[in-house]
Design goal:
two-stranded antiparallel sheet; 65% helix; globular
Amino acid sequence: MKDASAMEIVQAMREQWVSMTAMATMFIGTILIGLFIQPVYNFDEIRAFGESGSTKVGFIFFELLMIFLFTIIIIWMARKGLDHLIKGFVMFALGISLFYTIWPIALILRWIILVITDFDMSATFLNIFAILTTVGLMTLLHKYPEWYVVNSVGVLVGAGVITLLGVTFTPSLIIIFMIIAAIYDHWAVNKSKHMLELADTMINLKLPVLLVAPKERGYSFRDENEKIMQEDISSTDNNQNKTVKKSRDALFMGLGDVIFPGILVISSVTFLPEIGPVVFDIWGDPSLPIHLGPMLVGLGTLFGGLCGYVALMTQVARGKPQAGLPLLNGGSILGYIIFGSIAIGFNQLWHNITFL
């Protein structure tokens, strides 16, 4: 029976390998974009709680409380039919994160224009360009929320969130954050199931807080119903009198499943000792370069997250919603410890932390 079950999972993964590979690509791409723009925001003024706040556990619990309250408020508003209010609030918050990713891209455009035309864009013009681009993308999302628009905006939003959180907390605090979030995710998906209700709300509103990987050509995210995560996707085979799993038309992954492994990657290259030669210094002064040691730890963390992703896909292939953070966060933390111990030494991986 175990062999038969294993063969069924392998067969299901073979049938869905295109969508699973596409999702893995978005997972990697979001984190790499965050890694690319990290030097632009690696300053004490950017950290949400300042330099001293990067080692205080109390701020992690504050972030967790905000996540829990956000979830409860959104679900309550959805049950009250306040969809327009939900969408406006979430779109505004996502737009801010999107701006933080667009701004470094605008900075690159400024350099290109300077090289080609010898014209140096002012900081004001740079900010206006980034704001207009952000507004344009959010407007496109509102008017035409197809899966590739949702994914494009979602990847950029995720990269911004990853970067801002990653430069705010040390790896030691991020790991505590990830462990608690994984426990909460397991409870919210498998026990209370309110996370599935939240996911359905976001799908119904076509918001880029999840990534979508179609399984077939011609798929339209705009046609998705609002109960896809909560609905029973089992059917009965009358001829053989047994339950058969029906496959959803697309693979879905919450943006949080990408963000948590990503912030540990960014935190690694931000706070670990500068061991080894410089391997990334595209932004120049006053940004800080990334050295080989922290970069290897960051990439090892990403690899660990990908291993967790593969393990997760063996469960997702069954067609049942799964809590992603236990496997994704677990794989990332193991990757951090294993590759960190090799690249810079186990004792260098930890920072002294306080509650307040």
